[in-house]
Prior knowledge:
Blueprint: E1 10-17, H1 20-30, E2 34-41, E3 44-53, E4 62-67, E5 80-88, H2 93-102, E6 107-112, E7 115-121, E8 127-132, E9 154-161, H3 165-174, E10 179-183, E11 187-191, E12 199-203, E13 218-226, H4 229-241, E14 250-251, E15 255-261, E16 267-275, H5 300-305
Parallel strand pairs: 1-4, 5-8, 9-12, 13-16
Antiparallel strand pairs: 1-13, 2-3, 3-4, 5-9, 6-7, 7-8, 10-11, 11-12, 14-15, 15-16
Amino acid sequence: MTTEQRTAGIHHVTAFVQDAQRTVDFYSGFLGLRMVKKTINFDAPEVYHLYFGNEGGSPGTIITFFPWKGSRHGRVGSGQVGITAYVVPTGAFEFWRERLNKFGVAYTEVTRFGEQYLQFEDPDGLRVEIVAREEGPLSKWTFGGVPADKAIKGFGGAVLFSGAPSKTGNVLEQVLGFELEREDGEYRRYRGTGDLGNKIDILLDPASAGNGVGGSGTVHHIAWRAKDDVDHVAYRSRALNNGMQPTPVIDRNYFNAIYFREPGGILFEIATDPPGFAHDESFETMGEKLMLPSWFEPHREAITAGLPPIEVRVLEADQS
């Protein structure tokens, strides 16, 4: 049974990594995503918060990172988002297989619910996969060796390594309005209303994932989409009514957020689609300048001095 209030799917995914430039090289240089925002962790301003997505950083396309140099390395496992799925156009699968080979990125090919996936890891060990589907608008962004007609459209979904799969599924249905689509004995698939970030698979045997340990190479949280502030407040009430303990609404400058940990141990966020990323800089220049919220602006010089320089650059393998 689902609620009439239904999320479109994933808003964004946020992860810990160690090296800022290495992350930029992988997600922009290799995967071809646009760095749509360069800002700081509002709770730890000595650390970048980097956002990557499609040309406009649309909800359903955004992966974000806290690059924390020297941080402990985590272990992907139970109580975490296990795999983040990206969707590419049909016909682009072979392009991505060849690109993985070209850059020497090890991968495996797996099938889940009748779909073929390329699974690999980023330099910190985050688990990533690529699937080809018709649904979802094409990206208009091209960079390096990734043309727009082969580019990542956004998220295909995610695989949740829940410590309590049935309870996590109940939260997806009762709080967020996902619909149970099917089960194959190993995974249970839920579907949101959107055409990106809309297919969420839960691994049904928590023991097979091992115990998760937070740190670099792991997802910190997964955020789900709310249409606007009214929708957002309603989700918060729904979370409370279903036994969750959501935070108050927090202003994240580019969206409003609430957070709660669901019974399977995964940190969930619900984030508003507006205002988006172009409200404090132009669409054309997004990601070029370090953007700070107003309360940190007086400390810009000191903050900038403590951050390593980074650049979006075409990688050597794409220059030949």
